[in-house]
Design goal:
Arc Repressor Mutant, subunit A; 11 helices; Tetracycline Repressor, domain 2; 2 domains; globular; 207 residues; 76% helix; mainly alpha
Length: 207
Amino acid sequence: MLKGESAHCEARKEEIINACIELYKNLSFKDITIKDIAEYTTFSRPSIYNYFETKEEIFLAVFQKEYEHWKKDLDKIAKKKEKISVKQFANKLSKTLENRPMLLKLLSMNLYDMEEHSRLERLTEFKKAYGSSIEALENALKRAFNLSKAQCDNFIYAFMPFMFGIYHYAFVTKKRNIAMMKAGVDFKEQSIDQLVTKLVVKLLENK
């Protein structure tokens, strides 16, 4: 593929991804169709299939972009040379996720469908971005606290699964809040910062 053709292809893919992002701000995953996405682009629905075979592949590309942005934020933490306390690190890490509500939303709702209905090569591209974010988090931990590989692994295997639940606690719908009250469930909505900081401090103070 010629350089110009490659740039054109990437620009088309980016337009499709951005259209999906805009729709996802107001619609649910199940309600968005490729037809809807096409209406937000400058080209036809059949053209989208030249770049993505399914709606899930488009969402997986959105997800990949979110991990790439998160990695950049984590890299900024790792580049800081001054000494940092556990609480300061926890606050900085929580800020990186406050900046990525779509990452948390995708994690909590639609990961299985996206992975199952995407081609292996698309899934592999996504996993590379995911893996890079884990490496960035590990580098930030090592730079801040000089942790061993085993200590970093202990943190990561507790923190990464925890991320799947953040969105549901930090973004509570009115309907769900009413249902919780009617069910008599004691529930207190918390911010991303409150949720992340508590866990990170607990994990690192016991390292």
